[in-house]
Amino acid sequence: MTTTARKPIDKRYDFVLLFDVEMGNPNGDPDAGNQPRLDPETGHGIVTDVCLKRKVRNFVELRAADDPDGPNEIYVKERAILNRQGQRAYDALGIKPGTGETQLAEGGAKKKATAKKTEQDDVQRARKWMCDKFFDVRTFGAVMSLGVNCGQVRGPVQLTFARSVDPVLPLEHSITRMAVATEKEAEAQGGDNRTMGRKNTIPYGLYRAHGFVSAPLAAQTGFSGQDLELLWEALVNMFEHDRSAARGEMTTRALYVFEHSGKLGNAPAHRLFDTVTIRRRDSAAPPRAFSDYEVRVDRAAIPEGVHLIEKP
Predict the structure, then answer these.
(1) pLDDT (mean) for 150-176
(2) Quick one: pLDDT at residue 114?
């Protein structure tokens, strides 16, 4: 199974992603004691685009586990060494990084200018191999020129930071583990053997993120219709296999996809996003569930040439 026979998408897409969290921490800030990320001026919660892409990558990696030789490996996987990933492209193509030696004439030396061009050609070949092999490279793009040079890829899919619809209230909880890690800790406590810790949560938050899919950039990376469907599947299901004590109740609530009729699109993205509105049913009570909100889509305001697809 390869991506070489797959046809890149020929339409533009914009989308609105809604997800929520209940008594959890959707995206802790390591520079702030892992507290939930906040906009300090408004108190709205924030989830970074990098966090959302990590969830997509993890889901696709699980999805591709049954096809290890297929086109949906993940380049930026957890604990990966990226230069080793790039070396795989050179090994598979039978070229040596940084020398242009694959086209050396037998028994002779190549001129510097010719060697440079050969090296550039090798980088382009390696870049294509990486796009064909790794889902996240041809989807989100990657900088692959820091060591083993596989070039740079500008991905067709981009995500914004997610922001909560209403301000959220971070809570800090003291927790106790009825054990210690070392004999020294046990001696210091006289056998009590307790370890104190803290956990950060928010009671509830409904988050909204926007995304964009560019057909012209998809043509450069080979991002296909199959890749697009896998992206939608990942966005809908990415929290189902990401459970933890801090993220036990995170759920994708809605995915609104605006499909344009052509590569360049039929309307500005912000006009489409404005058709999706969210309001609290009871403005006096703090929201504690998705049912506390009403989501509306003004279909009459969607411009001609744009088709709305609701997932799941």
Answers:
(1) 95
(2) 59
Domain assignment present for 85? no
Range of the domain at 53: 13-71+155-311
**φ, ψ for residue 203, nearest 5 deg:** -60, -45
Judge whether 130 lies within some domain: no
Domain count, the chain: 1
Residue predicted with more confidence, 117 or 128: 128
How far apart CA 116 and CA 55 sit, in angstroms, is 39
What digits encode the pLDDT tens for the residues 217-271? 999 999 999 999 999 999 999 999 998 888 879 999 999 999 999 999 999 999 9
SS (H, E, C) the chain: CCCCCCCECCCCEEEEEEEEEEEECCCEEHHHCCEECECCCCCEEEECHHHHHHHHHHHHHHHHHHCCCCCCECCCCCCCCHHHHHHHHHHHHCCCCCCCHHHCCCCCCCCHHHHHHHHHHHHHHHHHHHHHHEHHHHHHEEECCCCCCCCEEECCEEECCEEEEEECCCEEEEEEECCCCCHHHHHHCCCCCCEEEEEEEEEEEEEEEEEEECHHHHHHHCCEHHHHHHHHHHHHHCCCCCCCCCCCCEEEEEEEEEEECCCCCCCCHHHHHCCEEEEECCCCCCCCCHHHEEEEECHHHCCCCEEEEEEC
Residue 22 lies in a domain: yes
pLDDT tens profile 67-105: 888 999 999 998 889 999 999 999 999 988 665 444 444
- 186 within some domain: yes
pLDDT score recorded for residue 247: 83
